[in-house]
Specification:
The complex is a heterodimer of chains A (726) and B (305). Chain A has 726 residues and is an alpha+beta fold. Chain A contains 27 helices and 17 strands. The longest helix of chain B is centred in the N-terminal third of the chain and has 31 residues. In chain B, 33% of the residues are buried. The N terminus of chain B is likely disordered. The chains are: A alpha+beta (726), B mainly alpha (305).
Chain lengths: 726, 305
């Protein structure tokens, strides 16, 4: 194997059917960066979209990149690529994991693991540097992720990083995850993709390191970033409440730079810790900035917080670690650690509300942390709240209405007394039923589209304006996750690209920060052009710079999941420094790539690499839609937008001050601009031959042509042309 | 060796035999001498937090609480460091006794490091040792500026009344500051009843505005001013609970009383209340926001993380 800077230089190939384990030099994939990009190319070449997602030849590809484990801040990520079983088109999809396991894979000397085949019996993959083996996992098959991870560590040693699927994955529940013991998870159905292969988990120990071309430069860039650019979680660049060094703070008191004087970790070992002030250039206090628990739950979080944890190479520590002692009264685990969705939506399954437990206002927190532990243990994913929204939709119905969808026997078997009492065991029981696929209700964990089919709900069910039970932006089975409510047409455009929620945080990092609009607007317009950045709930019609910004976000996110970098923190668009007029440094990620790999990268080059991945994604989506939906016209089949996006808030017109609703004609114009920037056919939204060849993807163009995808004409247009001809 | 060796000059060490008070004063002087470095161009800990950090490195429990209570900061620091030195002196024999049985088998860390071989390929091996700059002698005006600066580092503005009560010729020294480049960071701000001083190196102008409003102790004026500021600058309505947080730290009762007494007064006619869709109460200024827009941006939408 050749030696490289940044890249480990090889990938691991594991065939679970034959048990064969081989090694491959990965130099030919370096132009796809790694992670997501590398996996897309491999899957396109070896496991075409024609395969059923559960076919023996279907792949699960774990991928890290040149920056993973290289000492670059906020780079402890791992991307996992596989096939969706729950979103429209059964197309290519990714899960994204933080924690320590991605860097550990790199230290073991691997840029990725390509899993194919199906094992006869449950196994886990053990990697200790070059020693790789499939080990019997029969003892933990059927067990929760916490017990399984513990067992793998006991079997192999404390220096191993492990991740496990839970019962949800084993039972092929579409909403399923792969979990570490720390609450880091990769969702999107990864658990079922592995469960189908009888692959229970991974145990990895690496004793090597990542070779870095210019370590001195990496340290220099890191110090520059730490002292001048980095903010709080989501790179929010002003604190949540006034601090003496800061000109601004979030008036709402709610952003992710949530550490502040008086905000305490009251259960910290050795006594309470006041997170205090954290001047932006005091690098020793960066880890006190993000008090995610306080952001999520407010003051009650302080009562239960032990400390903040986080991923490898990250100073932000966005995983608050709690000891929620009231849960002991219900025989539920009290130690919890998580961030993001698992701790936000548990209360949704309590239509009658929740009550306080020990401190004023702690009900939401206690219930959500019980949810977090239970879903993590079962390895159940929530599809960014669709699990909870869809459950709420039916749970809040009167019995006579609900029993139109689930049997009376099942309805009556639910422990409603616990729901009425706000008892955390209610949600745990619901989660258990979902994870084991018990009853009619569990179809909800097979996906919103599967639920609609089973319950006979029309497509218009997704057009409803009830935000508590419907936030699907499109008809593809996944909800709004940083869409137009935060990023106007830009947010809608970048949601069109993927086969799951977009996972793009490039704009919400700015709009959620709480800095004055004019300050952030100046930063954004200096980087991305005039008119690209709208004021909250005061939108303007689409323009070219907005469409370019949306395209930038897509390409940038794809680069992050390939390099790997954390998209919640990167790019360094804004800064907390008044001296910099709050401007970040978009070039920094390219500078890190250059310093780590020894090859010269520019921001434009990273955009090109990211766009190559965008084009692969779009071409593969077209193929899967042609096969599974009968049409590869992505503009019609994939990119259609739900009515509520345009019809909500009837008291407001689009572009009026006070609303985030969009305008239909304006959005179609936005799509035209967006497709134009990406070189996609305006009628079908499919990358043209010229576009694919520009990115050295001529073989994909040949494939699309051979499949007749370039010949397709939308039905409506055909009818219109025929009418015109007559 | 796991992390390679640290080179001399990498960390600040304080000679235990030194007079703690002198150590602090020297550090303050060094800070002033070094204060003119650009902040954003290269990595550089802000002079403000540097003071607090170095004070802590000496072992002081200084956390600004003395300043917040209106006590003399330097005296408080001196008291704390004296107490610490005494405590350390008491603890030393006990520590030595405890360590004695293991001394033979466990070498001292510094001896161990000195005996360890040099790390190979250490890119920092050729870095020169940093020596402390020559400390300038401070003028009385510069010393007073240091006092204001240390209070700013503790998130406090310093009233003119406090200065003249503590320093006989305070006005004379304050008058000298604008002419002295070493005091260029000292800024004054007129409040309702007094003038306030702060270091712009240690405190932002907007925070000084908040601190001044707090010092003015006119809650109605403070609430109105901040509600207008937030509506104009962000723009944002202001949740009532904004004033429960640091640095305001008002009780809910005080906020309610303040808002009640503002209502009906012509000078606060532009301040109005709204309730958002989560039943949270906000104030906003009609000078800068329409009610319709203020309500819309205060409502909490469905969101995901």
């Amino acid at each position: 194997m050749a030696e490289y800077y940044g890249w480990a230089g090889k990938i691991l190939r594991v065939d679970l059917t034959t048990g064969e384990i081989t090694t491959q030099d990965d130099a030919k994939y370096h132009k796809y960066i790694g992670g997501m990009g590398m996996a897309y190319r491999i899957m396109y070449e070896e496991a075409p979209m024609d395969l059923d997602p559960y076919d023996e030849k279907a792949q699960v590809i774990f991928g890290v990149g040149p920056l993973t484990g290289a000492g670059v801040p906020c780079s402890g990520r791992m991307n996992v690529t596989f096939r969706s079983t729950w979103s429209k088109g059964s197309s290519i999809i990714d899960a994204h994991m933080g924690g320590h396991i991605g860097p550990m894979l790199k230290y073991a000397g691997w840029d990725g693991i390509v899993i194919t085949g199906i094992s006869e019996k449950p196994v886990y993959l053990r990697i200790e540097d070059d020693e790789v083996s499939l080990e019997d996992a029969s003892d933990i098959w059927g067990k929760g992720t916490f017990a399984s991870n513990k067992w793998m560590v006991e079997q192999n040693g404390r220096e191993f990083e492990t991740a496990s699927i839970g019962p949800a994955g084993e039972n092929l529940v579409d909403y399923s995850t792969l979990n570490t013991s720390f609450g880091n998870s990769g969702g999107a159905g990864l658990g079922a993709a592995m469960g189908n292969k009888k692959l229970k988990g991974l145990a990895i120990r690496g004793t090597g390191s990542v070779k870095v071309a210019d370590p001195k430069k990496v340290l220099e860039l890191s110090n520059y970033m730490m002292g001048n650019l980095i903010g709080g979680n989501n790179n929010h660049n002003v604190p949540a409440q006034p601090q003496s060094w800061a000109e601004y703070s979030a008036t709402s008191g709610k952003n992710r730079w949530s550490g502040a004087p008086g905000r305490m970790w009251k259960k910290a070992p050795g006594g309470p810790v006041d997170t205090g002030e954290q001047p932006y250039n005091d690098i020793n206090k960066i880890a006190l900035r993000c008090f995610k628990g306080y952001f999520d739950f407010g003051a009650p979080a302080a009562e239960y917080t032990v400390k903040n944890g986080g991923c490898s190479s990250c100073p932000i520590r966005c995983y608050t670690e709690y000891d929620v002692d009231p849960l002991a009264d219900y025989d539920l685990p009290t130690h919890n650690s998580n961030t993001c969705m698992p701790v936000l939506y548990g209360t949704r399954v309590y239509p009658d509300g929740v009550h306080d437990f020990k401190y004023e206002g702690d009900g939401t927190m206690v219930i959500n942390l019980a949810w977090s532990h239970a879903v993590d243990d079962m390895g159940l994913w929530d599809n960014y709240g669709n699990l909870n929204r869809d459950l709420l939709w039916i749970l809040r119905m009167p019995r006579e209405e609900a029993t139109k969808y689930i049997s009376e026997e099942e309805y009556d078997s639910l422990p409603w007394a616990w729901e009425k009492a706000g008892d955390p065991r209610w949600e745990v029981e619901l989660i258990r039923r979902m994870a084991y696929g018990e009853g009619d209700l569990s179809v909800i964990a097979k996906g919103t589209l599967a639920m609609m089919e089973k319950f006979g709900l029309p497509k218009s069910w997704l057009d409803r304006t009830d935000g508590a039970t419907n936030s699907n932006l499109m008809y593809n089975g996944f909800p709004n996750h940083h869409g137009p409510a935060e990023a106007w047409q830009v947010g809608m455009l970048y949601n069109l690209v993927y086969n799951r929620d977009c996972m793009i945080h490039e704009i919400v990092c700015e709009t959620g920060s709480g800095a004055p609009y004019e300050v952030t607007k100046k930063v954004m317009e200096d980087f991305f052009g005039e008119g690209c950045y709208d004021k909250a709930k005061a939108y303007t019609p689409i323009n070219e710079n907005k469409a370019k910004l949306a395209a930038y976000c897509v390409n940038d996110k794809n680069f992050h999941d390939s390099a790997t970098l954390c998209n919640w923190m990167w790019p360094m668009t804004q800064s907390p420094s008044k001296e910099r007029a709050y401007h970040g440094d978009l070039d920094l990620q390219a500078d890190f790539m250059t310093a780590v790999t020894g090859e010269t990268y520019t921001q434009a080059g990273l955009q090109e690499a990211g766009e190559r991945i965008t084009q692969m994604l779009r071409a593969m989506t077209a193929i899967s839609f042609q096969k599974n939906c009968g049409s590869a016209n992505l503009r019609q089949e994939h990119d259609a937008i739900c009515d509520w996006v345009f019809d909500k808030e009837p008291d407001f017109k689009a572009f009026e001050e006070g609303t985030t609703k969009l305008d239909r004609a304006d959005m179609e114009k936005a799509k035209d601009l967006f497709y134009d920037i990406f070189g996609w056919d305006k009628t079908t939204g499919v990358p043209t031959r010229e576009t694919l060849e520009k990115f050295d993807l001529g073989d994909m163009a040949d494939d699309l042509e051979a499949r007749g995808i370039y010949d397709q004409t939308p039905a409506g247009e055909t009818a219109a042309s025929e009418a015109a001809a007559q | 060796m796991l992390f390679g060796r640290r080179k001399p000059g990498y960390t600040t060490t304080v000679d235990a035999a030194s007079d703690p008070e002198q150590v602090i004063l020297d550090l303050q002087k060094a800070e002033m001498a070094a204060k003119k470095k650009p902040k954003a161009e290269v990595f550089d800990i802000d002079a403000a937090s540097e003071t607090a950090r170095r004070l802590k490195e000496t072992g002081s429990m200084f956390d600004g609480s003395a300043a917040k209570l209106g006590e003399d900061v330097i005296a408080a620091v001196q008291k704390e460091t004296d107490a610490l030195a005494a405590k350390q002196a008491e603890a030393q024999p006990a520590l030595e006794e405890t360590a004695a049985p293991h001394a033979a088998e466990k070498p001292q860390l510094l001896d161990f490091l000195a005996a360890a071989p040099e790390a190979e390929g250490d890119p920092y091996a050729d870095q020169p040792t940093v020596t402390a700059p020559e400390l300038p002698k401070l003028t009385p005006a510069q010393e007073l500026a240091g006092y204001i600066r240390s209070r700013s580092a503790a998130a406090l503005v310093t009233s003119h009344a406090l200065l003249v009560s503590e320093v006989e010729n305070a006005d004379e020294l304050l008058a000298q500051m604008p002419e002295d480049p070493q005091c260029a960071d000292i800024v004054s701000r007129a409040g309702a009843k007094d003038a306030y001083y702060y270091s712009s190196a240690n405190m932002s102008d907007n925070y000084a505005m908040i601190a001044q409003l707090i010092e003015d102790k006119d809650l109605c004026a403070m609430v109105a001013e901040m509600v207008r500021f937030n509506a104009r600058v962000y723009p944002s309505a202001t949740p009532l609970r904004y004033f429960r947080r640091s640095p305001y730290d008002l009780t809910q009762e005080a906020i309610e009383q303040t808002w009640q007494s503002m209502q009906g007064k012509p000078e606060y006619a532009d301040i109005e209340e709204l309730t958002n869709n989560q039943n949270e109460r906000f104030l906003f200024s009609t000078q800068h926001l329409t009610r319709r827009y203020a309500k819309a941006i205060s409502d909490v939408d469905e969101w995901t993380d």
